[in-house]
Amino acid sequence: MPGPSRKIMLLGEIGVGKTSLVNRYVHGRFRTDYMPTLNVEIYTHHLPETDKRPALTLLIWDTDGNFGQTIFSSVYLKNAAATLVVADVTRPATLEAKDQLLKGWTQAMPGRPACVLLNKSDLLPDEGRSQVLHAQTTSAPTPVYLTSAMNGDGVNEAFASAADAIVRRGL
Prior knowledge:
Elements: E1 5-12, H1 18-27, E2 40-47, E3 56-63, E4 80-88, H2 92-108, E5 114-119, H3 126-139, E6 144-146, H4 155-168
Parallel strand pairs: 1-3, 1-4, 4-5, 5-6
Antiparallel strand pairs: 2-3
């Protein structure tokens, strides 16, 4: 039986893989027929009870990368319990944008958890992955996950971490 629902926002620049990540998580697949998200798409995913949290239904809001900082003054954030901020490890500008989105989230939604997803990690050599992860974890006060929507690396762990943080904080 599905548990109570909680809203999670996916934030990030255009083309970082937000839709691909949510499709991997919710449907277990990677699609190559890319269509950009316009405004927002909402996905539902039911999580079973674990030793860390009761059963929970995630309402995942996949946002249009065109929002940028204006997302923080929109009605889309209403009742959001957490965010996953996504960057593309092959595009340094998206790593910088991720920092601004995290700052905006913290100011707009104080006390609400955030996780960083460094997506497209499958495109980096092994040593590149560890260097990116080290560089990003030393500068971020939030959990950071190397993810690949293509092969699924880190995707389930990142969403589960956000769900666990929501429950821990009583949101």
